[in-house]
């Protein structure tokens, strides 16, 4: 044993988590229990899009989305099944849930009580960060002000009843996925945290407030530039300490700690040579583990093949083993901070802090994060455009994508079961159990519980007690959210895509000339409609396609996320579109696009070319082409100008006449 090990005990490792959930509560429960048996030390629950956006599995908007990107939870019975034989009083559970966070926490509390747990001992986190949903992920329901109120309702309730629970996980992860620079990730996340704490001050006593500040946690991203990312984490630690001390007067250093969990970057995972992603994930993990001063409290890693589809249990196990090898086989946890006093690190941290403070001052001048949502969204779209342009132009090297592209075919991606798929029968099974649940409950108790929830929402009372009563009465996710929608209204977030062309037109001269020529033949400006059908809120790709089409000189319409096929078709008719683009990243492309193409033909629009993009396996791409989709794009199609050329050619009346 080394002298270092004699001198001081090893640090405890971070929590090992795997972000997981799919198909049904029963299947997800089996996966959780299997992962825990493999050495995972905390749960990280992924919910499907209907659950995240407050719809039951049989709602029109849920079609094709049930169980795809997470587990469907419609009622207390589903939550019971999800945590069957998992003692919640011994678990640390992270739930990636935002708009419906009060509801999912209410269901979790109700199940814990049924298990006989002491609710005051429950440990875990609800993400509960709506501001980043408006900016990057799109699972919001209500406008910002009532959403902020529900965030702080959860915080105030947990202070009194679940003192070990983290009521909010300020999530900068998706900001980086949307293209944020490190300075933007720092400032936008910290601005969100201050908006919540400013509102929370009115809901807890002055004596309790410092401890509530100490319960705010963060969920961050770590990209491939791991020195910068490690410095970013040190900057987060120092800026948060400064804000807690100077803005909120928190004296106890324990309550000023920057406590964060992390999933490393999924944006940089490549469809080409996907085995390279294993190295990327490992290097990114080092950014949040090497520096003791800024080490993550919990780490979850994506699987190497997530750019191809849903990872299998083996793929998730491989990522879990990566964490365990670093924690238990290396000597990392035997040392103090490795970077303290390093001049290069100190200089980079200082520069990041300076850039973040400048952004924070700009956001503060707009009234804080809620008032600056449009500004922050537009900044993210611009930053992402610059990131993509760097990859397209070769200034940013991505191995296997724009450099060293020649390689051997991967044996890991061959075979029928190389990617996990969700059985289409899952949706019917879930709906059948939902109908049985509705038939077996006390209708009068449900009606009264929903009336009490509505009363709490309208009067300004904390929504948590009424939500827990709803959970116990048998209310469904859609019923809970319908009350919230009726009381607070719905919201459409900004797209960040201005109708005015940007200054970023370098290298687009040929494409602009092609657009002009085709527009002359058409007798009006080439009209391109970009649509996002279904509940998928990951809009980065759609935004960049719309922005590049605009900069090429097309007349574009992009109305944002969560549109029904009928709403997109209405826009096609209204604007007499020449080409339509559809973007779906949730895996629901087959049912949604099939429905869309059928309705296009019914409306006499079968002649309008349609292109589609998403995480689409080749077998599915063939099916889409057989439905009449003109072009299918996946993450490997990173050259936007090639896509633009396709769109222009599809609109060319001479091509159409030749066909």
Can you characterise this structure?
The protein is α/β, with parallel strands linked by helices. The protein contains 26 helices and 15 strands. The strands form 3 sheets. The protein has a 5-stranded parallel sheet. Strands 2-3-4-5-6 form a 5-stranded parallel sheet, with helices on one face. A 5-stranded parallel sheet has the order 12-11-13-14-15, sandwiched between helices. Helix 17 packs antiparallel against helix 18. The longest helix has 23 residues, at 343-365. The chain is globular and about 75 Å long.
Show the helix and strand layout.
Elements: H1 3-7, E1 15-17, E2 19-20, H2 25-37, E3 43-46, H3 49-53, H4 76-82, E4 92-96, H5 101-114, E5 123-126, H6 131-137, H7 144-161, E6 165-166, E7 169-171, H8 173-177, H9 182-200, H10 209-213, E8 217-220, H11 226-246, E9 260-263, H12 277-287, E10 298-300, H13 313-328, H14 343-365, H15 373-393, H16 425-440, H17 443-459, H18 463-473, H19 477-488, H20 509-522, E11 527-531, H21 540-551, E12 555-558, H22 565-575, E13 579-583, H23 589-602, E14 610-613, H24 618-627, E15 631-633, H25 640-651, H26 653-658
Parallel strand pairs: 1-10, 2-3, 3-4, 4-5, 5-6, 7-8, 8-9, 9-10, 11-12, 11-13, 13-14, 14-15
Helix pairs in contact: 2-4, 5-18, 6-15, 7-9, 9-11, 9-14, 11-12, 11-14, 17-18, 17-19, 20-25, 21-25, 23-24
């Amino acid at each position: 044993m080394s002298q270092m090990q004699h001198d001081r005990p090893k640090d405890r490792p971070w929590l090992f988590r795997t972000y997981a959930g799919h198909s049904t509560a029963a299947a997800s429960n089996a996966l959780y229990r299997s992962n825990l048996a493999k050495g995972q030390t905390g749960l990280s629950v992924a919910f499907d899009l209907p659950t995240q956006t407050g719809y039951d599995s049989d709602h029109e908007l849920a079609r094709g989305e049930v169980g795809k990107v997470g587990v469907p939870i419609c009622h207390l019975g589903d939550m019971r099944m999800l945590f069957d034989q998992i003692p919640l009083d011994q678990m640390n559970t992270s739930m990636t849930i935002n708009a419906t966070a009060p509801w999912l926490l209410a269901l979790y509390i109700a199940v814990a009580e049924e298990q006989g747990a002491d609710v005051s001992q429950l440990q875990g986190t609800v993400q509960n960060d709506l501001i980043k949903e408006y900016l990057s992920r799109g699972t919001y329901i209500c406008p910002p002000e009532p959403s902020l109120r529900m965030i702080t309702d959860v915080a105030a309730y947990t202070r009194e009843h679940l003192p070990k629970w983290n009521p909010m996980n300020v999530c900068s992860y998706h900001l980086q996925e949307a293209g944020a620079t490190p300075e933007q990730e720092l400032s936008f996340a910290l601005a969100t945290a201050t908006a919540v704490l400013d509102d929370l001050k009115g809901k807890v006593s002055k004596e309790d407030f410092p401890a509530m500040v100490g319960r705010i946690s963060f969920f961050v991203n770590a990209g491939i530039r791991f020195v910068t990312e490690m410095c970013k984490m040190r900057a987060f630690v120092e800026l948060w300490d400064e804000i807690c001390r100077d803005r909120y007067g928190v004296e106890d250093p324990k309550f000023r700690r920057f406590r964060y969990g992390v999933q490393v970057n999924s944006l940089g995972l490549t469809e080409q040579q996907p085995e390279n992603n294993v190295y990327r994930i490992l290097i990114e993990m080092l950014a949040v583990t090497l520096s003791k001063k800024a080490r993550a409290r919990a780490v979850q890693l994506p699987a190497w093949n997530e750019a191809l589809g849903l990872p299998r249990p083996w793929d998730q196990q491989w990522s879990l083993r990566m964490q365990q090898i670093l924690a238990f086989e290396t000597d990392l946890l035997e040392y103090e901070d490795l970077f303290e006093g390093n001049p290069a690190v100190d200089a980079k941290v200082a520069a990041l802090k300076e850039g973040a403070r400048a952004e924070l001052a700009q956001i503060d001048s707009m009234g804080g994060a809620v008032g600056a949502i449009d500004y922050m969204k537009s900044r993210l779209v611009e930053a992402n455009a610059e990131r993509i342009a760097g990859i397209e132009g070769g200034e940013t090297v991505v191995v296997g994508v724009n450099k060293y592209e020649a390689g051997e075919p991967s044996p890991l991606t061959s075979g029928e079961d190389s990617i996990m798929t969700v059985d289409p029968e899952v949706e019917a099974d879930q709906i059948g159990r939902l109908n049985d649940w509705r038939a077996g409950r006390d209708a009068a108790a449900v009606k009264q519980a929903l009336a009490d929830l509505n009363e709490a929402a309208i009067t300004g009372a904390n929504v948590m007690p009424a939500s827990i009563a709803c959970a116990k009465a048998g209310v469904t996710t859609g019923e809970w959210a319908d009350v919230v929608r009726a009381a607070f209204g719905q919201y459409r977030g900004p797209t960040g895509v201005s109708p005015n062309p940007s200054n970023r037109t370098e290298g687009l001269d040929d494409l602009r000339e092609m657009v002009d020529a085709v527009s002359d033949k058409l007798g009006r400006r080439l009209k391109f409609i970009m649509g996002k059908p279904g509940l998928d809120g990951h809009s980065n790709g759609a935004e960049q396609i719309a922005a590049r089409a605009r900069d090429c000189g097309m007349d574009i319409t992009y109305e944002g996320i969560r549109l029904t096929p009928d709403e997109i078709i209405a826009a096609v008719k209204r604007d007499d579109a020449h080409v339509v683009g559809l973007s779906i990243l949730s895996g629901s492309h087959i049912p949604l696009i099939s429905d869309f193409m059928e309705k296009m033909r019914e409306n006499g629009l079968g002649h309008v070319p349609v292109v589609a993009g998403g995480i689409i396996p080749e077998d599915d791409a063939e099916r889409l082409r057989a439905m009449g989709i003109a072009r299918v794009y996946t993450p490997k199609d990173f050259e936007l100008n090639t896509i633009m050329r396709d769109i222009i050619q599809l609109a060319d009346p001479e091509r159409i006449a030749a066909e």
